[in-house]
Design goal:
The chain has helices spanning 74-81, 86-94; strands at 2-10, 17-23, 38-49, 52-55, 65-67, 70-73, 98-101, 107-109, 115-117. The radius of gyration is 17 Å and the shape is elongated. The chain folds into 2 domains: 2-65; 69-117, no CATH class. 14% of the residues lie in helices and 41% in strands. A hairpin with a 2-residue loop joins strand 3 and strand 4 (52-55). Helix 1 runs antiparallel to helix 2 (86-94). The protein is built from 2 helices and 9 strands, in the order E-E-E-E-E-E-H-H-E-E-E. By secondary structure, it is mainly beta.
Length: 119
């Protein structure tokens, strides 16, 4: 049986932290934690075998939905922070065309699948 989840993302020290919430469908209503910068959906297959539930890997990941972020292009980052900034060098090295400054004041890559929700 296919199970649906929403993953809330939070800034961490070295990598992002997250928490998962099982939902009935991707159209379900849920509360967004105030300290998260965004969320995305994914699915997992679950199979019951005897008395054990076997859970598959994440699949069908959606794009990230950021809340109240500000999107910057590589040229805007270069102009604002300079060519020698870690942000610009990371964008250049990882070939990121855009990043988003989240409501938690951290930067994340911003892809075509992602969206910025202004509340």
């Amino acid at each position: 049986m296919l199970k649906h989840y929403v993953r809330f993302c939070y800034p961490g020290v070295l990598v992002n932290e997250y928490s998962d919430l099982k939902i009935k469908s991707r159209d379900s209503e849920f509360d967004i934690p105030k300290n998260c910068f965004g969320y995305y959906f994914f699915d997992k297959e679950q199979i019951k075998k005897k008395k054990e539930i076997l859970t598959g890997k994440e699949k069908n990941n959606s794009g990230m939905s950021y809340i109240n972020g500000k999107i910057f292009t590589k040229s805007e980052v270069k102009e604002l922070y300079g060519e020698e900034s870690n942000l610009y060098r990371n964008m250049k090295g990882n070939n990121y065309k855009r990043v988003i400054k989240t409501r938690c004041n951290n930067f994340q890559p911003f892809s075509n699948k992602d969206k910025n929700i202004i509340e």
